[in-house]
From TrEMBL:
Stretches the record annotates as Disordered: 1-36
Gene3D superfamilies hit by this protein: 1.20.1280.50
Residue ranges annotated for the F-box domain, each copy included: 49-98
Biased composition regions of type Polar residues, renumbered to the chain: 23-34
Listed Pfam families: F-box-like (PF12937)
CDD domains according to UniProt: F-box_SF
InterPro entries in alphabetical order: F-box-like_dom_sf, F-box_dom
Protein name in the entry: F-box domain-containing protein
Amino acid sequence: MSSSDVDPMGRRASARLKRRASTDSPPESLSSTRSVKRCKAAYKNAREEGPLEDLPVELLYETFAYLHPIDLLNVAQTSRALKSVVMDQAFSSVWKASLATLHGRWNMPPAPEGRSQAEHANLLFGDTCIFCWTARSTVTAWSLNARFCRECASTGKDVLKIDFENITRKQPLILRLPDIGDLLNYGYDECEDIFYVLTKDLEVRNTEYLAVRRTAAVETWKTKCRALVGDRRNFASWCADVRTLELSARERKRSRLHYGRQSEIEDFLIDAGFKDDLYPFWHDLQYEHPLLDRVELLNEQGISDLQDELVEIFEPRQAQRLEHEHQRFLLRYYADMDARWKSYVNQLPPQDVHPPVCDVFLSLPYQQFAVDTPIHTGIWSMHLKLLFSRVPALVTRWRAEKDAELVDIMSKAFGRRSTVQELQLATTFFQCNASGKSLAEVSSVGYPRILVTPHASRAYIREDEPDEMVRSLQKTPWNWKGERVAFDEAAHSVARDVVALCGLEPDKATASDMEVRGAWLACTGCSKRGHPRVMQWYQAVRHARPGAGPSLLCKSGKPSFSVLDEAKVPRAVALRDRKWRVPGAPRGKSKNKRRDDTVNIISVRMMCAHCKDIVTSFDVATHMQHEHEILHVRLTDVVLPLDEADTGEYVM
């Protein structure tokens, strides 16, 4: 490239840099015509397209003299064209000038004899092999004043691998000396447990040893070698210290710039309203995002460039955080109301019908109350006092709505218009289809038990359930979406036969009539000779209902009933009183020591039939002993909830 090929802007820039160079007193050899020509030739052979490669070589030649050696090494890795210029022997004066900029801070070691300035700078501050200039799997051996890759070491051209414990006759004779470690510099790779020596050093020392090994000068030669090895080690320690000090200083400067940039971005995000969304993931983001992990301070233009992208990153996270907070508020809000509703229901008689808590949330009085009470303020007892004063009217209205819903279900099953009076019949039974339980546990549910059974409002929902109330409480309103409750035609057919067998009319007899009748029935299909299996009418319907698997209670598969003789009824009642257990009460110590029978027992609320006190299954036995001197609790001593009907079967 001739001077006529350089554009005017390039000539002016080059002249300006040359004037600056003259005032800063760089080495005179920088403007050497011979060096410039050699760099031009190397630059021309490897010329590539790019903004930096388009500059005149003279301008690069003058500019690079003011770069730090680490920056020069990084420039050499950017392109083949720049590497051909920076690593050329003619560029040594630039390397010398670059290294001279550090003399004010550190006592810089000079380049060893036979080592170029570029190789010396690479050893001090670089990470690449000084022989092939690659950064792949390098080993730094300061005692050899060399950094080399394992591929160069495997070729043996510049570096040799030595196993001092297994020296062969084909290897140089000097390696057999017992004090070889004091006569020759070597490096050690801890990762592979291998010793290295420079090929040139080994050849020179071996030649010298062969010349003096049979003469009296061998001791003098060894003394000289020890001195050279010591000098090399001192020089290596000098180089290692300079590298450590300079890299530490650059890292501190880089950290200051990096943290300064992060602090400015953090202040901007706080001012933009993302303070609560910043810290959970800020540490990871600032090292992963390319716009954030930079070592430079920000100006107004930099903040402007980052603003849109930062907002795009943090807005979804802010929305996600607000949604999580909303869910936590909902969970606390609904859970608080659920606990208060349970406390209120526990004060009611066990036979009362009350809506599930989700139906309370959906009721009109509660919706009006919720509008006046924001969700983030919580619920207070003084607020609920007014709400609970409206519960009787709420229950009446809710029961009327659900009765009408059950009548519609019956009408679809019968194919005709049913009436509310038919709900009271002993032949009216329902089942819960969508509870996820086996059929025997949720079928043959009479009225009004169907209104209070938990199977009609138990939630079996997905994690992505859109309804916030259902997702928070893990409960649903009664017969949610109209898919939970269905008419049990199989139980209805069996109940008609059972009612007729007891001597009542199936189309007129109610559940109360059957309770007054008090008939006991024996299943002739699964009874053994002389030991009939007896039960009352409600359990007889469940026992004879057709089903499969666990839902089939009659193991014979052919249920057939007969009314128990009146003379045997007292015996059946006595057997029931002896065998009957309080629902939800602990069963005492198990014979199996590894099993705890008190685990997963749910307390059942009931009423004492003698004093009308509300008790639980855990303390009913104590109540009966202390208050009424009854040692064994019988079914007639308590009033069970609607959902706890007597479903016992007894073998006489």
